[in-house]
Amino acid sequence: MNKRNNSRLYVTIVIVTLSAAFILGCISFYSILYVEPKVKSLIGSKNNVSVNLKEAYLILRDPQLFAGYENFDSAGMAVKNSLMYFDKLAMQEEEIDASSISYLDVLLERRMLGSRLGRNTMLYFLLVASVFFAAYLYERKK
Amino acid sequence: MTRYTFFLGVVLASTLFTGCAKVPDTLHSPAVKISIDIVDNKEIYTLKFTGGIKNENSGYVLKNIRGTVVFKEAEKSSGLFSRIKKLVPFIGQPGVPAIPFEIGVIPPFEMGIIDFEKGFTEKEIMPLADLLMINRDDLLKNRVADDVNVDNKNLSLSIDSFSKVNILNLLKEKVHEQKK
User: Which range, of A27-36, A133-142, B66-75, B131-140, averages the lowest pLDDT?
Assistant: First the structure.
């Protein structure tokens, strides 16, 4: 009986999972390495507090891909309320003072959760890719 | 080839749907007040209608929302007539005044309030009073029927026009204006 050679299937799976891991990694690490430190420094700045906090809010208003603002469970209501609060302040051109930082932290935390979810999913895909790569190498040896 | 067409169709459809704004289709806490006032020695029946429209979009501000609230008879039977009525949406109860409204801006997750007030004659208002099961004698005796909650089954909301603005662009404009 002829044994089937699955190496092409394994290679395809490795390519697909690696591509998915690459895309997820780019999105997640852009947030982890660039966006989040920038927001943290804006929130922590001592000068031009209102302008910097508004700048931080503008960045956080654009949601991370895996932490959108479409659906909220009971735990996410704090995020929804923070968005409503800051939208109102910004639309009425009011100042954002240091007392609102805790609400910005809520939004930053949601973004961080989203980027960590993306990073962990990337690691999962890398693991799947490595398993199928090992299977490919084993198939080639046979 | 057909697989690629299908895949392209799915991608295009999802792009189209993610770019669309949710149009409000429900009225929140609709309530009616009818009061009898004397204006120039004539009895005027003032109808006050309040209700809320929620913007359920997270990323869009709804602007210049124009529409109409139409009162209609609630479904009572599953007969042929009610089935035909279902096929013709926004058909109002004959003789009952419709409520036109216009709301300027509704930010994301916020509620826009319809606040309509208009005077009618007895002949014009009574079909609505009957529809809402307001006792005519009580209305004439008390001169007011206050806080009459309207079942959503008796209403249909029709949005005629609105414009949507991306909240992020709007906020950026505001913040940059302030910086100047």
Answer: B66-75
pLDDT (average), residues B88-97: 62
Please give the ipTM for the structure prediction.
0.75
Residues in chain B closer than 8 A to A69 (CB atoms): 58-59
Across chain B, what does the average pLDDT equal?
A: 81
Contacts with B21 (C-beta within 8 Å, 6 or more apart), sequence order: B57, B60, B62, B164
Longest CA span, chain B = 78
Q: Does B172 lie at the interface with A, CB-CB under 8 angstroms?
A: yes
Write down the pLDDT at residue B37. 86
Contact yes or no for B171 and A58 at CB 8 A = yes
A52/A61 Cα distance (integer angstroms): 14
Domain layout of chain A by residue ranges: 7-67+76-141
Q: For chain B, give the number of residues.
A: 180
C-alpha to C-alpha distance for B158 and B90, rounded to whole angstroms = 7
Which among A51, A55, A83 has the least Cβ separation from residue B108? A83
